[in-house]
Amino acid sequence: MEMLLIELNKESETPLYEQIYQQIRNDITEGKLVVGEKLPSKRKLGEFLDVSQTTIEIAYGQLAAEGFITSKPRRGYFVQEIGELAYVQPVEEVTFSAKEDRRELEIDFSPGKIDTESFPFKLWRKYAKDTIDESSQHLLLLGHPHGDQELRQEIAKYLYHSRGVDCSADQIIVGSGTEQLMPLLIRLLGPQATYAIEDPGYPLTHHVFFHNNRVAIPIAVDGEGMDVQALQQSKATVAYVTPSHQFPTGTVLSAARRTALLNWAASNVGNFIIEDDYDSEFRYSGRPIPSLQGMDKAGKVIYVSTFSKSLMPSLRIAYMVLPPVLLKNYEDAFIHYSSTVPRLDQHTLARFMADGHFARHLNRMRKVYKRKLQLLTDSLQQYAPIISFSGDEAGMHILINVHTDRDENSLAKAALERGIRVYGLNEYRKAVRSVQPSFLFGFGGLEDVRIPRAVEQLMEAWDIRKR
């Protein structure tokens, strides 16, 4: 047995055992050390390299764990057969990173952001602290697969009083986000289902249908919401809609179309409606728009919502209300599933709701967002008639129309060059793209004091003057 030729750089940030491990591994994969060859003992190699036996032991231990060498009691370490697999070592370390726009953003009109400064941190911390207690040891175990009863009961009460949703806690399925619940729902409805989606519409849902190999037919949205007549003429069996505040246009599904949509669903045993009520908590004028589920008499509406807008996106708690006709099928299909939301988070939220803090938080946030909306619309009105807007009765974004000869892409690019990100409506379309440039303006994440100046900077980028 000859001593191994190993070069150590004791000034390197790479640990010595790692250097030894890498060089022996390379010698084995390159055939410099043949199968069955005995390696030097830990003591002899340590003395030769002037390192401790512990360093050699760690290197040998890693090689043995990966199957490059084997230890034989009282005999030592031997090179192991590694088969025909080619182990390729990179010449240099390569760092992979996603492509991203490195321009520094000064203003982001994202429709997905919330007002984080108004979150009731002290209250939430108190309820989280009370939940994480030795008396809550049972919460360390798996709970009900549909979500814990305490949270589902609070959701059922909240939905009945705020949205007119008529359901029991047993009909509610809690999950970690709409994107986690939707694939379950798609599997429940079966491969024969064909989906109608709003156009323009919510892109994440479009991706869910696509990645689950489901046919999705875009149905145009106009000033009254989804074109139900076009839906009726399509081959769709399931309609995915955002009726109370259509995303992204902000349109409210008209009463006539609500009736027509419910009649369409009731006309066939395989027809269903998925009602995504993503931000209905925030309505600023008139009475709340009743949910389709509350109007449904045939058990054809699947109600879906989330706490992302009402509390925080990172909470990752969403829920769906299944009609009785689907509930038994769901229980049979997913009997072995566990809830994807941690029980400690579920109980923190349940107690927060039970003590009335969720309702008070919503009332407070309506005022916050209404004030921001007013600041935004007041600022935009100064640029009429070149600028017009709609969808300002509810939600946390509005739709801006720019009456100009420039196209949507050039306007978005001009804004980005000034550090302002806007979201063109054509990004949310599947079929016919609009010539009229339109943009979603989210205001939830903008500070009050910055909104007027943000609009002013954007109009400067677009070379639009005040009237």
Short recap of the structure:
The chain is an alpha/beta fold. It contains 15 helices and 16 strands.
Share of residues in helices: 25-40%
Give the overall form.
globular
Distance, first to last CA: 90 Å
Structural category is alpha/beta
Could you state the oligomeric state of the chains shown?
Answer: single chain
Mean pLDDT: 90
| Estimated share of beta-strand residues | 5-15%
* Number of strand segments: 16
Tally of contiguous helical segments: 15
Rg, Å, rounded: 30 Å
Low-pLDDT ranges: 96-102
In this structure, how is the largest beta sheet organized? 8 strands, mixed
Strand order of the largest sheet: 4-11-10-9-8-5-6-7
Structural overview:
By secondary structure, the chain is of the alpha/beta class. Helix content is 37%, strand content 14%. β6 (216-222) and β7 form a beta hairpin. α1 (16-29) packs across α3 (53-65) and α5 (149-163) packs across α12. The N and C termini lie far apart (90 Å). Mean pLDDT is 90; it is low at 96-102.
